[in-house]
Amino acid sequence: MATKKLPIDPLDGPKIALAGDVVAMDDPLTVTRAGRVYIDKGAIVAIRRSVDPAPAGFETIPVVDTGGTLFPGLIELHNHLAYDALRLWQVPKKYTNRDQWAGIADYRRLVSGPMTVIGKTPSLVPALIRYVEAKCLVGGVTTSQGIALFSNAGIRRFYRGIVRNVEATEDVDLPEAETRIADVEAKDASKFLARLKRETCFLLHLSEGVDAKARAHFLALNIGADQWAISPQLTGIHCAALQPEDFAVMGALGGAMVWSPMSNLLLYGATANIRAAIDAGVRIGIGSDWSPSGSKNLLGELKVAWLVAQQVGGLTKQDIIAMATRTAARILGWGAALGTLEPGKRADLLVVRGTSADPYDLLIRAKESDISLVVINGVPRFGRNPLMTSLNAKGESLTIDGEQRMVFLKQDTQDPLVGAIKLAQAASALEDALSTLPALAKALEKPKPVAALGPKRAPPTWQLALDEIEDTGVDLRPRLRDRRSKTLTGATRRIAAKAAPPLSQVLQPLELDPLTVADDADFVPSLATQRNLPQFVKDGLPPLYL
């Protein structure tokens, strides 16, 4: 008899009561001033004003004054988390589609090469996972795309961690999204459409760039006179090349998109026509993509999105925050359980220090040092030490912008691969690895001989599944045939040619990307030297960080 799988985040958390202004992000945009959120067993029991009596069972539970404003936890629908130990790349020129930059020597030296070395060094995988997950937490992210792993035994799985993983929940109320598609389905329109309709949500890269070649990736979804390989399950990541008529098709067929403005602007100098997408009724989520060519976290991406919104007009701060909360949850099919602060929903939330007459502006302008508390499934995971202590959390100390914080990373259902390593140990291991990249690459180029198997097989050795770098039999994007040119569309796979210099001769020592912008002395100044970043971002982003 098969063993029943249990949810990665079981509903068994403690009773807690948090006080502060409560921004529900529900459809009426309810804001409860001087409110209280009552939580039990991982779910919100009630939201009441401070003058109202506590719900039954909470009469003796102490109310913890957060001194801030409560929002739903941020849901990130696109992030290649495994790469988030790398610093922001100084993009060397303006590109018009992904194929142009994914194979250049500079990219191999600073992005794909370092990740190949770290990803293929099993002892570094736990450290990397621990570090990048903490990077999410300190930015208020409670859900993101997961980290794919594969083993020498041919097993493939997703890491189970503290931050919710859209691909792995084992929870009927949180249906698992797909982010990779088998090659055969990616290349056959009828099979691709059939696969879409079997899922709740498929997050796939679409039209990565701004030119006709990037747009052809979308046009290839047209498989007949009026038939498209688009359904409500399809969520296209980037969609930067789509024209208003393309968004009209997406909207009519119920498709959604994920917007990553910072990455698009850094690489291409332009981003998706977000005004046209909204006018067409396309549902829009948001994601920071990855640290080499994006914001350090989703909190930063909200700032870039707001700057773009002011340029195109018609979008409010509430619209931007909805992309990271209620709309994101609905895209995933999680709207009944997450995305807003309402009784009966899961207790995923963040607290921003202070209150404001405009709480939405407060979140847009918040720095990482303003994040006072992050709760996932009713469990305090990150926050200011006094708050975490008041909530009986005992975790690891860290410093953000000179202030003490605590991160609580213990969880019974957590992946054992990572559970034993502390954040400080992870950071130290990654710093050492990045500083000795050429030597690590050299060691990988001379693998140790594999000993003959004895009567008992050794346990699997896990590595990162770097689908952006190597062909693993699955794809991150459809590659349907262009009906006009008869060629397959989509970004070309970039596997290093055998004639290319070995990585040990290409790589150089690098520095670990800091967890926060607040502790990164280089991030804000480097924006001024990014050649593709529009001037309104160069001028507007620093004041939102400083």
Overall average pLDDT: 92
Helix/strand structural class: alpha/beta
Unreliable segments (pLDDT under 50, ≥5 consecutive)? 451-455
What is the number of E strands?
Answer: 21
Fraction of residues in β-strands = 15-25%
* Proportion of helical residues: 25-40%
Total helices: the number is: 20
| Cross-sheet strand order for the largest sheet | 3-2-1-4-15-16-17-19-18
| Rg (C-alpha, Å) | 23 Å
Ends apart, CA distance between termini? 58 Å
What kind of sheet is the major sheet? 9 strands, mixed
Shape: globular
If you had to describe this structure to a student in words, what would you say it looks like?
The chain is an alpha/beta fold and 546 residues long. Helix 10 (298-312) packs across helix 20. A nine-stranded mixed sheet has the order 3-2-1-4-15-16-17-19-18. A four-stranded parallel sheet has the order 11-12-13-14. The chain has a three-stranded parallel sheet with strand order 5-6-9, with no helix packed on it. The protein contains 20 helices and 21 strands.
Chain-wise SSE layout:
Layout (H helix, E strand, L loop, with lengths): L15 E8 L7 E10 L2 E7 L13 E10 L1 E2 L22 H4 L3 H15 L5 H13 L3 E4 L3 E4 L4 E3 L5 E2 L15 E2 H5 L1 H9 L4 E5 L5 H8 L14 E5 L5 H9 L3 E4 L1 H8 L5 H6 L3 E4 L11 H15 L4 H7 L2 H7 L16 E5 L5 H6 L6 E6 L2 E6 H6 L5 E5 L2 E5 L8 H4 L3 H13 L1 H9 L16 E3 L9 E2 L27 H4 L16 H5 L7 H11 L1
Parallel strand pairs: 1-4, 5-6, 6-9, 11-12, 12-13, 13-14
Antiparallel strand pairs: 1-2, 2-3, 4-15, 7-8, 7-20, 10-21, 15-16, 16-17, 17-19, 18-19
